[in-house]
Structure formats: C-alpha cells, structure tokens
Design brief:
By secondary structure, the protein is an all-alpha fold. It has 19 helices and no strands.
Length: about 450
C-alpha cells in the first residue's frame, strides 16, 4: 500500500530548487569555460600537453577536496551555511582567475573554483532532496543537473563570443556575476528541516515544513524524519558509511558517478574543441561553435529527463540513455579507425556522434547520478554519503581529464573512444544488477 503523500506548495519548492540550482550554473560555467579558454591560455603561457591537462584537472581535484570539507560542514553547520560558503569561494576564484599573471596563479584560482564546486555538489542535491516530497523529488533534484547544463551552455556562449578576441581573461571574469547572484539569493532560503530536526531544533523544522505544506503534511513529514532518526544509526563519522545501513548506498552512489566519468562525459565538456580539431574542424571559432551545439543539446535533453524521471522511473531512462551513448561512441571509434586522416566527413560524423552521445547522457546518467546520490543514504549520513560520491567523482574525473590528451595521442582516436564504449557496457551491467528503482518511494524508506 502506497504511503500517503503530503500536499506541498510547488512555488516554494521551485524557488528553493532554482536557488540551489544556481550552484549548478556556477559548476557548469567553471567546468565548461575551460573548453574555449584553453585554446588561448595554452598560447599565452606556452603550455605543453601535460600542463594543459593540469590546468583542466585541478578543478575536479579541487572538487574532491571541497567534497571532503563540505560534507563535514554540511553536517555541522547546516546545508544553507555550506552553500553560503561556496558562494564566497566561487567569487574569490572567479576574480582571481582572470587576473592571473602566471599559469601557477591560474591553477590556484581554478583549484578554488573546484573547491567551491565540491561544496555545492555535496550540499545542493541533498538540500533539495530533504525539502522535496517523494512524488516530485527526482524532478526537483534533477533541476540541479539542468542548471549545470545551462551553465555549460552559458560558458560556451561566452567562449564563442570572445573567441575572435582570444580574450580568455574576460571568459573567466564573467563567472563572478552568477557567483555574486547565487550568494545573495542563498540568504533568502531556509535551512533543511531534516537537518534542523536531527540537531534538536524541532520547532524550527516544523516552521520550515509549514512554509510549503499544510499542518497535516508537515506532521506526515515529521513522522518520517522521526522514524528515520530513531531507527537509524546515530554515528556520523566517515566509518559509518561502511555500516550495513549505508554500505549499499555507498556502492550505488560512488560506483555510478565513477562509471559516469569513465564513460567519458567530461572529456567532451573539457576538450570538445580539441576533439573536433582532431576530426578536421581546424578553426578555433568553428570548433567552439560545434562544442556549443553539443552543450545546447546537453541542456535540452536534460529537460526530457526531468519530465520522465518521476513518470517512467530511473532505470528505464538509464537503459535507453547508456545504450545510446554506447552506440555513438562505437560509431565514432569506427569512423576514426576507418579514416586515417581528417576530412570534412569525419568532422561531420564527429559532431553528429557527440551530439547523440551528449543527448543520451543528459537524458539519463547526467541527472540520475545526482538524484541517486540524494536518495540512497540514511538521513544522518546523507551529507557524508554525498561527499563520498563527490570524492569518487573527483578522483575519476581528475584521472580521466589528466590523461585524456596523452592517451589519445599515444593510442589513437579510435581505440580511445572504443575504451569509453567498453565502460558504457560496464555501466549497463551495473545499472541492471546494482541500481534500485527509487521512483515514488519515501526518501527515508530507500536506504532501509
């Protein structure tokens, strides 16, 4: 028998999700802007292939460190306070990057931006999941991923706009504006009622719940939270993630975000213009334009996921999406393998394949990975669990981004994309055997 669902005021939840989603815009902008900026940064500082990889990979490396600190702060200071700190760090990094006199200072600035991304990656999906009712939780958490894709589109638009001037400093500087807006707006949202409850602030938790549901709905949600806190583990240290109550969620969340990176998504985000250059698009502006097309499809396809994830479920979307990614990568590998040199045809096929690849990713793995991270952990360990997933994401993202250009130059285009296809097969198997269907389930029941 399905549990009674509380009535909620959608306008409040959309406002909160939008503000949390601004963190996703900052995330998307700061990972996306490097695709265009790197084409000119490498000339300014005469960067080798390895140094280019370092400039790119310091963001996911910073994300990993930010996740460790952010997970602790989110539990101790609260979800809202952690988001406020992330806004401050975003602003500092966004100002420092365009002022960098050396590549070393630029690396420090981008490390700070990665650190802020770690804060928001840990906190924003958890924050939204703890405010959302079961019937719309997937869509509301998925708005964070949509915001991320919008940030990438915005970054590529900025990159294309300034490409003719080769002004990578202005490209980076634009990021300070959404960072400032995010910081101001976070002051207008409440703390998570679940965090308030487990920190013995029950009256405040009830007031937050009453701001977007009626008295009966608030009582239903309070009863669920009370049940979760009385039957779950009271331990809040990192070792508790290995307890029986959290171990399965840890495997699901960390395993899935690692596979997400091994399937190659951020190689397209970070190195899109260079991939198109390898395929025969020899103009920087045209390569950035092709990358912009890919990012637009990324954003539009995320809307499909938001519409379907609470209707048909997580797993059906994953089967279709990952299968499409696999087909696109295999066709791309076949094309590179068949054509030894670059031609107009390989450029066209590369654009088509990468648009199909990103569309399938955005309609499935992209939002669902972070939806699962917000769903599969017990309440007391939710921030630590999200931090563990973000650490796994950061490690795998760093390794992939730090090695992609080197690997593609050593073993060739065809074999590189074939290896990414192999990881898509592994992800399909992981989805079938490991990932549960969480559509419509009470948040507190998923981890039991």
């Amino acid at each position: 028998m399905q549990a009674e669902q509380p009535a909620v005021r959608g306008a409040f939840l959309l406002r909160v999700s939008f503000i949390a989603g601004l963190g996703g815009i900052l995330y998307g902008f700061d990972v996306g802007i490097i695709a265009a900026a790197l084409l000119f940064v490498r000339n300014t500082f005469a960067l080798s292939t390895h140094m280019q990889e370092i400039v790119v990979s310091v963001v996911p490396a910073g994300t990993m460190m930010g996740a460790i600190v952010g997970g602790v702060l989110s539990d101790r200071l609260g979800r809202r306070a952690t988001l406020l700190w992330s806004g401050v760090i975003f602003i500092v990094g966004s100002i420092l990057a365009p002022l960098s006199p050396t590549v070393g200072i630029l690396i420090v600035a981008r490390s700070l931006l990665g650190f802020a991304i770690g804060f928001t990656s840990v906190t924003a999906p958890v924050y939204v999941s703890e405010l959302s009712p079961p019937q719309s939780r997937g869509t509301l958490i998925g708005l964070y991923q949509f915001a991320l894709t919008f940030g990438i589109v915005f970054a590529n638009l900025v990159g294309y706009w300034f490409a003719s001037e080769e002004s990578w400093r202005l490209m980076f500087a634009i990021g300070a504006l959404p960072a400032a807006i995010f910081l101001v707006l976070v002051f207008t949202v409440p703390e998570s009622p679940r965090w308030l409850f487990i920190n013995k602030r029950e009256k405040e938790a009830e007031q937050v719940l009453l701001s977007y549901t009626d008295a009966h709905g608030a009582q239903l949600l309070l009863d669920d939270i009370h049940k979760a806190t009385t039957t779950g583990s009271s331990r809040e240290n990192w070792r508790a993630l290995l307890s029986p109550a959290a171990r399965r969620g840890l495997i699901i969340a960390v395993g899935f975000v690692v596979l997400q990176q091994l399937c190659g998504i951020n190689t397209v985000i970070y190195y899109g213009p260079q991939i198109f250059g390898l395929a025969g698009i020899d103009s920087n502006q045209h390569a950035i334009l092709a990358t912009l097309l890919v990012s637009v499809m990324n954003m539009l396809a995320t809307v499909i996921a938001l519409f379907l994830v609470d209707r048909i479920g997580r797993k059906p979307l994953l089967y279709w999406g990952i299968g499409g990614m696999l087909g696109s990568l295999l066709l791309l590998a076949f094309t590179f393998g068949r054509h030894a040199g670059v031609t107009h045809a390989t450029g066209v096929i590369a654009v088509v394949c990468l648009v199909a690849y990103i569309t399938c990713f955005a309609a499935s793995m992209g939002p669902i990975a972070w939806i699962l991270v917000g769903e599969v952990f017990p309440l007391r360990l939710r921030s630590r669990g999200a931090a563990a997933a973000t650490i796994g994401y950061g490690i795998s993202n760093t390794l992939v981004s730090l090695s992609f250009l080197t690997v593609i130059h050593r073993i060739g285009n065809a074999l590189t994309f074939g290896i990414l296809g192999f990881f898509c097969v592994a992800t399909l198997l992981f989805t079938y055997f490991i990932i549960p269907e969480t559509k419509g389930r009470e948040l507190e029941s998923i981890s039991t």
